[in-house]
Specification:
Radius of gyration: 50 Å
Number of domains: 1
Structural class: mainly alpha
Shape: rod-shaped
Distance between the termini: 162 Å
Helix content: over 70%
Order of helices and strands: HH
Number of strands: 0
Length: about 120
Amino acid sequence: MYQAVRVLTVVPWKEVIKSAPKLVESARKILERRSKEKEDRDAPSDILTLEHVGASVDMLKSDLHHINIDATEQADLASQLAAQVEALSRGLEEMTSSLRLQKILLIGFAALSAVAVLLAVVI
C-alpha cells in the first residue's frame, strides 16, 4: 500500500490537471475521427449502393424503352415482310397460271405444227 501512495505522490498532479482539457479535447477528436471513419467506411458503400441501384434502375428503364422501340420497329418490319411474302405468293400463283397457259399453248402449237407437217407431206 505504501508503494501505491508513493506512486501517486510522484505523479505531477498539477500538470495532469492542467493537461486535462487538452486530453479531453484530443480524446474527443480521436473519437470523432474514429466515428467519422466508421461512418465513411459504412455509409459510402450504402450510398454508393443506393446510387448504383438508382443508376441501374435508370439504365434498366432506358433499356426497356429501347427494347419497346425495337419491338415496335420489328413488328413493323414483320408486317412489311408479311405483305411482301403475300405479294410474292400472289405473283407466284399468277406465274404458275401463266406457265400453265403457256404450256397449253406450246402443246397446241406443237400439235398444229405436227398437223401442218403431216398435211404438207400428204399433199
